[in-house]
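It would be a great kindness if you could assist me with a short task in structural biology. The full record is reproduced below for your convenience:
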Amino acid sequence: MIYIISKDTFGNRNIHDIQSNSCWSGCPLEGYAIIPDAMVDDILATKGCCDIVLNEDGTEVVSFTAREAPSVVVPSVSFAPGGFGLGANSLPVVSYGDLDDLFGTGWSYLNAPGTTLNGVIFNYAYVFTGYHGVNRYQELRPVSARCGTLYRECYNGTWGNWACDNPPMYPGVEYRTMERSEGDPVYVKRISYTITETIGDINGITDTSILHNISNFGRAVRCNAQKGEYLFPYANTTGGTTGVSHILANAIVVRHYKSVSGPGTFYFDLYYTKTA
């Protein structure tokens, strides 16, 4: 084999085997110098930590001096310490209030039956805490609560409210979501409304107001609605249509074109902001 040393466009010197046309760096060449066979193994052994002297016309390596490889300082880090990280049981926490006092980064296990956070009821949860100075971050994953993960942040020593990325959506419960609308937190609430008989006017238009019982209602972001297997707006059996007309500060207004047959239950997933 014939080895050469080259300098690429970045100024790096690289070893090549010109017979197999292989290049260690894959970089384009600017120039090259032949390495005598007696020096090849020794130069390769330096793994690039060497100073090379070329002949006058720069076509051949005449000598080289190995340099000491730069030292890498590894900081003293306690990896997965005593159950507050990976590789062991999570740090036990027996009270929800104790979560406020967690400092450090790692996993904890919350054992607090009957806890309710952001409308989510659970008995046990895994909690991850991220810590940097006075600022902290927590993820809480309830066990068997049929919901997603809850999140909150502590900024300058003050904890914010919990938000959920996938609420369980039980009727009548308000949840704060991870969503934002024009910078404001978005909440969601499922409202149910049951009719036992046909409502509306078979020959006209009827509005039905359904109270949503949301305090400090700000503005509606969107509303997903359905009656049984029918999504709003949907065609009535009487030949008309039914849909959400508008959202008031205290109610959802449903407009019926002709009548709606009962019995049945309306479900509304209302997303909204709050004034406080």
Observations:
- Confidence is low (pLDDT under 50) at residues 18-30, 74-85.
- Helices lie at 37-45.
